Amino acid sequence: AENSKSSKSTVMPPGPPMYLDLVYIPNHSNRKNVDVEFFKRVRSSYYVVSGNDSAAEEPSRAVLDSLLEGKAQWDNNMQVTLIPTHDSEVMREWYQETHEKQQDLNIMVLASSSTVVMQDESFPACKIEL
């Protein structure tokens, strides 16, 4: 029988990393659901950062910082692109304050003014909602 008692609670138990192409950060990037262990394990080329509710702390600055901390522990420096669904104050501040670290870790953030162009139509990249 496994010992279910844990000295600290983590959202995701430790284990081998998973490599994915696109990950939608759960629950509007709320820190109750996502921590450093999540980003150490769930390694993706693209993360969609949802949330535009500063009252509910979404997206959470702690989640964005967890990405930097988790990515720093990857054994490779693959490029990661963050896709924010909204232009939020939290995202802007985090982007400016941690820009150097993002560059060191090969993390790119799609700016809110990014536009996706597909054949006959174009639309803002920040309007992606799943």
From TrEMBL:
Superkingdom of origin organism: Eukaryota
GO biological process, any: axonogenesis
A GO cellular component entry from the record: cytosol
Molecular-function GO terms, alphabetical: actin binding; microtubule binding
Xref: InterPro entries: MAP1 (IPR026074)
Name of the protein in question: MAP1B protein
Protein source organism: Irena cyanogastra (Philippine fairy-bluebird)
